[in-house]
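Figure 2 data, in text form.
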Amino acid sequence: MRSRHFQLMRLFGIPVKISYSWFLVAALHLVLVTFLYLPRMVWLPRWQYLFAGALMTALVFLSVLVHELSHSLMARLEGVKIYDIELHIFGGWARMAEFRLPLTELRIAIAGPASSFLLALMFYICTEIVQQISPDYELRLPLRETFRYLLVINLLLATFNLLPGLPLDGGRVLRAALWHRRKDILSATQTAKRMGVWLSYMLISYGLFRAFWGDYLSTFWSVMVGVFLKNQAEKEYRYRQQQQADSRAEWAARGQWDVQGTVGAIMSTPAVSVPPDLRISEFIDRILSAHRYASFPVAHNGRLHGLLSLERLRQVPREDWERLFIRDVMQPVDDSLFVPVRASIELAERKLKANRLGRLAVVDSEGLLVGYLSLDDLKR
């Protein structure tokens, strides 16, 4: 459900989207605050509990939004393109283009927790002001508890996000520091990913421990968040692996197989390949908007999985872009879609004319993607 969303508004020109899954956690938060938390803290008429609970839920929503908006505005200051902000059942994220410097990632990552700490300070000041100047005890108490609750929520949001493991902000800070030191983003990502996986196992273990005390809500939530963090950390590392494999292939293809009369002499290096587990919506936003090719090789860790043609992509309804992945619409790899780098140009021409795509992936002796070939390459 996290992928199904609607656009709520635009802030500073940035689309803000809400996943339908967010309404589940909002409703759960409203129930817990209204019927469990507030009755323990203050006595109020029943309708005021509901009103205060709705207000607290809305302010928690705004706190998460401010956190993600801070990432986005810092990224904009750094010259990084922002696609949108999405709020979902596990919080939210800001989708943005790639950045090439570790200090850029460091500044973007730290902006979110910094804004949450500032919000916590603001709610602390509000708590003290209400405590000092409000003469009405019945009004002062619920306001004080509301501000105190939001103070704690923002402190927890900032502190949790600073834990040093991907995909949390602290994991991105760790990766930026290691990237700056090692000059290798893949190695830095691997370390930050391992920390993220370790943190996810800790969270899952804590949830299972709470089950022995009958706290099944904490168990469910801790396990869900732990699994989510683990999957996102591993996904981030796979993405960086794919990027490095593409870079190695491009570097190797520049001259290693430039043998007259072979495919290696006329092929284009694969400037862009697409991972099979990328959502169609992300492909259109991040890749197609920057690279207007008629087709793309689909590869994972340098291994060819298939070819994606825009003609085939146009047949997918727009409402399915968030639900479907590249692997769902690509043409799966078979012998007609690739050719060895040392194959003859005559063989490549026959395959290009026979596969109806007019495109061929080029692979080396180990089966890794090293180039791309079209009928236009043959003509040139």
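Caption note: The first helix runs from residue 22 to 41.
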